[in-house]
Amino acid sequence: MKLRKVTAASAAVLALAVAATACGSNNSNSSSSSSGGGKKIKIGIKYDQPGLGLKQPNGTYSGFDVDVATYVAGKLGYKPSQIEFIETKSADRENALARGDVKFIVASYSITDERKQKVDFAGPYFLAHQDLLVKQGSKIAKGTDLNGQKLCSVTGSTSAQKIVKIAPKVNLKENPGYSECVASLQSGAVDALTTDDSILAGYASQAQYKGQFKLLGLKLSNENYGIGVKKGDTATVNKINDALKAMVSDGTWKTDVEKNFGPSNYKYEPAPKIGVIVK
Predict the structure, then answer these.
(1) Cα separation, 264 vs 239, whole angstroms
(2) Does this model's pTM top 0.85?
(3) pLDDT digits (tens, 9 = 90+) for 211-233
């Protein structure tokens, strides 16, 4: 009798362990089946970039990158309800793709030769330029004015390295996210913030910051935004490129750009040609 009880208990424990393992395995996939039998897709975005990728207090998401991701996912066969957005900070984007945490990333992800060694890119789907955001009344007017000044950027971003070449004596401070940099600029802890003008325009137009900052419009670089895909996944790159071409041709691209950037009076570039990098 004792042997039967122990065996039954062990079988129950084993069954629970197998079920838990199966559940955990499903959760780790970037594209999997839900409990209702429908497909799910995990897409990397930013959570703290107004106008591009922002997680709202009610748990919804807004921004141009979110709209692009949703459109592309639709062309790949996924409804909005089947999308799970995953926060991917700048410093972790390559790792997130390599681990399979997400199927692809739409997160103001500039295409560079260095990054192409680790991931593949579809696009570009947007052309931005590196710029500086300063407080109203600031004497900073060009890149070299940053020598001796405190500058904030984000860990893993290419912007900081470019500014150091322009202003070697700049006092650089790197934070995990842009929201921390904006808070530092508002408080006076730093004198300027650098990243893409599309990102800076989104912050400058937020209600709590409106009228406090100004965008210098320096166009310090060309930032070709691409959709990051795991290295070697050529099939997905091709499908995403087809989706992006359709987004431009059917007018959705322009509609979404104006919806997200129009209120900030940001002067955006025309839709880029898919596969053409502007140097």
Answers:
(1) 32
(2) no
(3) 899 999 999 999 999 999 999 99
